[in-house]
Amino acid sequence: PATIYRQDYLPPSYLVDTVELGFDLDPARTIVASRLTMRRNPDSAERAIVLCGENLELVALRMNGKTLGKREYAIDDKTLRIPNAPERATLEIETLTAPRQNTTLNGLYVSNGNFFTQCEAEGFRHITYFPDRPDVMAKFTVMLRADKQRYPVLLSNGNLIEEGDLGDGRHFAKWEDPFKKPSYLFALVAARLECQEETFALADGREALLQVWVEEGNLDKTNYAMQSLKNSIRWDEQRYGLELDLDRFMIVAVGDFNMGAMENKGLNIFNTKYVLANPRVATDTDYAGIEAVVGHEYFHNWTGNRVTCRDWFQLSLKEGLTVFRDQEFSADMIGTDSGRAVSRIEQVRTLRQAQFPEDAGPMAHPVRPDSFVEINNFYTVTVYEKGAEVVRMIQTLVGREGFRKGMDLYFARHDGQAVECDDFRRAMADANGRDLAQFELWYSQAGTPVVRADTSYDAEAKTYTLTLSQSCPPTPGQQSKAPFHIPFAVGLLGANGRDLPLTIDGVAHGTGAVLELLEARQRFVFTDVAEAPTPSLLRDFSAPVILEYDYSDAELLHLFSHDSDPVNRWEAGQRLAMARLLKLTAAVAAGAKLELDETFINALRKMLSDASLDAAFREQALLLPSESMIADQLETVNPQAIHLARQFMRRTIGTELRADLFAQYDANQTPGPYSPDAGSAGRRGLKNLALAYLAAAPSPANNALAKMQFDTAGNMTDRVAALGALIHAEAEYASDALARFYDDFEHEALVVDKWFSMQAAAPGTDVAAVRELMLHPAFNIKNPNRVRSLVFAFCAGNPAQFHAADGSGYAFWAEQVGALDALNPQVASRLARSMDRWRRYAPALQLPMKKALQQVAKGKKLSNDVREVVGKALT
Ligand code: B3K
Ligand code: ZN
Prior knowledge:
Aminopeptidase N is involved in the degradation of intracellular peptides generated by protein breakdown during normal growth as well as in response to nutrient starvation. Residues 23-185 form the Aminopeptidase N-like N-terminal domain. By secondary structure, the protein is α+β, with helices and mostly antiparallel strands. The strands form 9 sheets. An 8-stranded mixed β-sheet has the order 6-5-9-3-2-12-15-14, with no helix packed on it. The mean pLDDT is 98. Residues 120-121, 259, 261-263, 296-297, 300, 319, 376, 379 line the site of (3S)-3,7-diaminoheptanoic acid (B3K). The site of zinc ion has 4 residues, from helix 2 and helix 3.
């Protein structure tokens, strides 16, 4: 397959002013009529009209009213070319597609009998011939025609301008989007659905109609999505002065969806997972996910839709920025400093769990990639989460107000345009009179930078010297890296645990400073430092780097008890835990005795019971680094040893802190009706973490507590926590509980997903058990949520079993990637990535992993998606 390079960008040969689309919707045979008014692009030397189209049957093609003869255009399986086209052309195109046959969930497809579309990144070309690239922006008018009984609801982007009956049992709706947009933002829905709706007053006095559309029986689960939408609109008005620009804004939930949601103009289409919630079926995590994703898609209306990407290499222009915006939104919704810190901690966890490994593996790529084979493979944690970190660093450098000025300038300059990541950086730099030239390297260089810190205190001179050195490991195609521009926040703690005042070069910085590391190595000297301090480095995780500093246990314990920066307070605990987990892992592998020191246990005890701290923070501070984070620290990965080491630590905590865990279990009850607010969710989180630790050290009393919670739970958060505890404790009651859980929720697809994923990720579940679960009547390989809940949860979420010594996990993986690829390449390719880091495993595992990869790679009908991923893994 062909590699596409960023540097080969050419402007489109023709621009499209207007698009009129007509759909005669039929699952077996949908006719799409398109009328495009086009004109030659003065910025292009090309004379031909070039349209993309895949899996389409061309029925008719007219230009300026005349049918084009076979010699007047060229067509292959990807493009339709009309050479020597006139300056202005009106094209009329008729094509046929078969939505019911479309299992890729890309383009126009059928889910549970209803029609939906997904066009980003290149789905529109599966609907009709079009210059399907984001720098072609046009005004769309859409006419939908369909059977009235089957599809009473007909939706598309923008405003409804006409609807009515067609007589023959069919009806129509005509929609007009007043804003020009690229084709990837087109959407339609034709379905039997119901909606919750309200009118909502916008800041300028206009009223907007807000709707959340769901399948019948789900109207009791739309409140939180609606509330989140209203909060998002308000937040964007207040924080960025950005208003909803349409009279109507719709969210539609669909059960078959490849990712989380899609920001189609005025018609966001969502995975049901990010819409449907009530206390009976959704957990606190689900509620938080809904708020974040509703916010994310809404915020795209400005960062993505009004200002879009010139080409797909610029994807992070909209994604990194919009993730940053949704993170800030969620943090503001909590509203407390400590809540903000907890959300920051969760962001750091995601980065370490998923982005750092990506940046260190075969698929490593810059935030703005230089090449790709399949763009859908580049909707990654690097483009999204690292992209958000890059935006966050800009805010750290220019300040919150400066950032707002930069945003204002960005919109003033680029509203209605398709632009590059550089344009965003330039607006930020210009609005603030800052040089962000070196900062560009965050967009162009892949890999996680390592910052090494060394310190020395001169008691005589009362100076404290911090030396920072940075480096970045090679990544595919990038052997050597230039130094990054790194905002590095620091504080210094005195022996009493308080922050010391900071003076650098005679300038006072209060008790916290943001240093700017620009060179490979740089020295910072703090003066008037009265005592040898404990450094608190990279506060608030001010840059997405790996920090190396030789902290002593005593220093970490000091920070864990006192750091005024909650993120670093948490970080100190993670370092204490990680050092011990690595030792334990080595001990397991060597067959040595496993031990955990009192000092560490006591530090956890103190944290657990410190009622002056929010429960949500204490939960974070007591969560251990995951198995994959531990793996990331090791030269050679032995998944079973890691698992046993971590289990040992959990069990020891459960045993040693038993009384304290029970006490916190009781102290953090949330009586009264369920509310997903951060305070209540935090208390439930801590309570259920206590339960999980108790389950790691099973005893009749501990298991009885889990059983009692399962039997009496008043909400899904408590119910799944109890079920998880029973499963992990291998309690006798576990299988009964699983059966009851299924019976109670078998008609709630999202809960059945939980039922599958809890089993898939359980330590006792091996490949044979997963195969058994796949035979369950509720398993459906065509439904991405179901596949993620079982196959992904096992391959990516149960490392000790997936990496079974006999290689059975790898054979299973190869089989599933192959089977999925035939149906849905995007989903298959995500699963393929669970073998990315095969080279780091113990030699006995490497060989069967490589074999499995090779087996997939030689598949005859492999998609570009999977081919790129396994090809890069094997390079
Ligand atoms: N922009 C979409 C992602 C589309 C993925 C295409 N494979 C969702 C989002 O980031 O909001
Ligand atoms: Zn997005």
